[in-house]
Amino acid sequence: MADTAVAMGFNPLYQNNVIFVILLWGGLATNLFWCVFLNIKNHSSTDYTDKSTPLLKNYLLCASAGIIWFMQFFFYGMGESKLGNGATSWVLHMLAIILVGNIWGIILKEWKGVDKKTKYAISMGIVVILLSVSILGYGNYLA
Question: pTM of this prediction?
């Protein structure tokens, strides 16, 4: 699809973003089905119009979260088109999401009060991620 988009005149910087139009339909369908199912099961569909809650604020926060979430794919697609290293760029993308999320969790004291075993597991997870990306980088260097 990306090659076809470029052949049709798309800017090569955005060539990978064409894929997301199709790719994200699966996530939309799954999430839509699950949310409707939970609304029916929990009898909570009236929460979307409940005047006792800050609806505008909630809708704006939801829309902001969705836009920010999508922008990760948008910028990933741009970066991958410049890097051109296929799966490696996806691994780096996922690595960045996990590391940044955990670092913010540490900074904001999200892990405060958890036992030492949990802190050890988080620390070892971060070490494994950093080690794996180092191995990946070395493997790409050898290639």
Answer: 0.63
